[in-house]
Structure prediction request, 678 residues.
Amino acid sequence: MTQIQDIAARAQRLREEIERHNYLYYVLDAPEIPDAEFDKLFRELERLEAENPPLATPDSPTQRVGAAPLTAFSQVTHRVPMLSLNNAFEDEEVAAFDRRAREGLRVEEIEYAVEPKFDGLAISLAYENGVLVQGATRGNGYTGEDVTSNLRTVKAIPLRLHVERPPRLLEVRGEVLILKKDFDRLNRQQRERGEKEFANPRNAAAGSLRQLDPRITASRPLTFFAYGLGSTEGVDLPPTQSGVMDFLETLRVPVSRERQVVRGLAGLLEYYAAIGARRAGLSYDIDGVVYKVNDLAWQDQLGFVARAPRFAVAHKFAAQEATTKLVGIDVQVGRTGTLTPVARLHPVFVGGVTVASATLHNQDEIDRKDVRVGDTVIVRRAGDVIPEVVGVVLKERPHPEPERFNILEKYPVCPVCGSHVIRLPDEAAVRCSGELVCPAQRKQAILHFASRRAMDIEGFGDKLVDQLVDKELIHSAADIYKLGMSALANLERMGEKSAGKVLAAIESSKKTTLARFIYALGIRNVGESTARDLARHFGGLDALMVADEEALQQVADVGPVVAQSIVQFFAEAHNREVIAQLVAAGIHWPKGAEGGHAAAGAASGKTFVLTGTLPNLTRDEAKEKIEASGGKVSGSVSAKTDYVVAGAEPGSKLARAQELGVAILDEAGLMELLEGKA
Ligand code: IVH
Prediction:
């Protein structure tokens, strides 16, 4: 052998190896070698071909991408038309199909080849002497578009059939699609690049296949499954549909693993139910199953009516997506005050139920999908989840175009309570600002108000709050202090005794601290520690209520976002009213001391870090004591830490303290320090 023959033989071996690994990876999902090793083979082939250009044959795996962008697709006439299937939705329609076929063939029972109905795009692949020469879309069934360069980039599609003596012509028919997992990744990528997301894998596959630049198609995770043949020459085919599929599999043409052979109507319906049950777990979207008379001679005998075969039928699942008119957009106010836009739809049957409303998620999603009232929209219902609007059918948008929808413009005030609606910077959600008065938020707000670290009203849990709000005995936190024995004792699971306890707890909660009270108000972004800083800084409620954003930002840890939520909260008349009522009810706190200006205790100005379990005090108790004495508790040890208080099983914080030479105390040491003895 000459050297060039050696090289040609090596290149041939590499091509076969690479195609085999492609098949293992992209079709069987069972790679045998790591990516790095595959890349090595690929690079070796690239190098050989670069050094010996005649070796770079069109069927080489290195030649999948590389065709120049087109200005338009040319037309392809299908040698055998790509017809459609009749649909069946009900079992009776399937029974009628089976009966007609049995009558047409004059047989008792029919064997069927059955498989999923792929929810992708029909294509036809022409292999001449084993080499892929043309790929076309279905088009109108008689002529389609030549998308050969694009289909060559689909790794699951073999560029050469795996067979010693290839047929002169073999037209493979099947569907191009995107696997669910690849779809999720693709959309994430689109989002990150600020490009339009696809409504579903089918649309993504269609959009990807109709790109004039094959490099774009190559970047999309398309795959392929064959379901039959078109025109063939020079090949002895097996006598059955299932045999043809097995034959295609030996050629390394991807075929569905879910395909089966069943007998009679009972076999068909059993298969339908079985695939239906496994649908969600399949790696690709399907919209039904397809039944084909297995015997090809019988298929010929049955022939076609109009544009669909008598020997096959598609048994569809109830649609999961449907298009309908968007009649209006309402909003729903959730427990945390978020206004969720809800599409009001012309009722449509989707996935087995009639749907008249669907979620639009939030303003960003409305903008991204450019959904406008009056549009024809695509509604999806997946399983039992809330139906959602996934996109707009733009070409059906009315003229003149409806305006863009903006929640804030349509709902400047909350539809439930009339408080102002706001959108905070960096938040997708639009919310109602009437945090203490909006009924939709009331339960949550009241629960928070009464909670242990806020006003600490014992026995004021969710069961009680649910009843009180539902029976309209309380509307806001202020109403808690108006509750009397008769109202409480009449509630479920409440006697006079427990009602008495609750009333006592309400009474004793009136004596509190300013920090607790501020925290109890439930201002967005104001947690316990911010509430404490605010109490210290302003010393009283009046000063806090009139502070502007600039003044608020003088407080440590209060930035523009927190400052804005505080200003917005106190700007709301409803909120000011509730506060006035609370104060009038007798809620009070010590002026100047713990809740007011910084306590001038022994720990004043010192920073503590707690780690491990203390013998007598809980974390919270230790923290309260330190803070009552003017100290601050921080979560992590740094050079600024004054003391680390260590209990049993301390964490890495102790080690860090030792490293930095920070003073270490045990519980007794802490108590001595706080009592001014240390
Ligand atoms: S067999 C004579 N099998 O459904 C037609 N079609 O309505 C033979 N489809 O455009 C088609 N999965 O692209 C067949 N397993 C499957 C299929 C399938 C999806 C599509 C096909 C065609 C449409 C027919």
Notes: DSSP finds 26 helices and 24 strands in the chain.
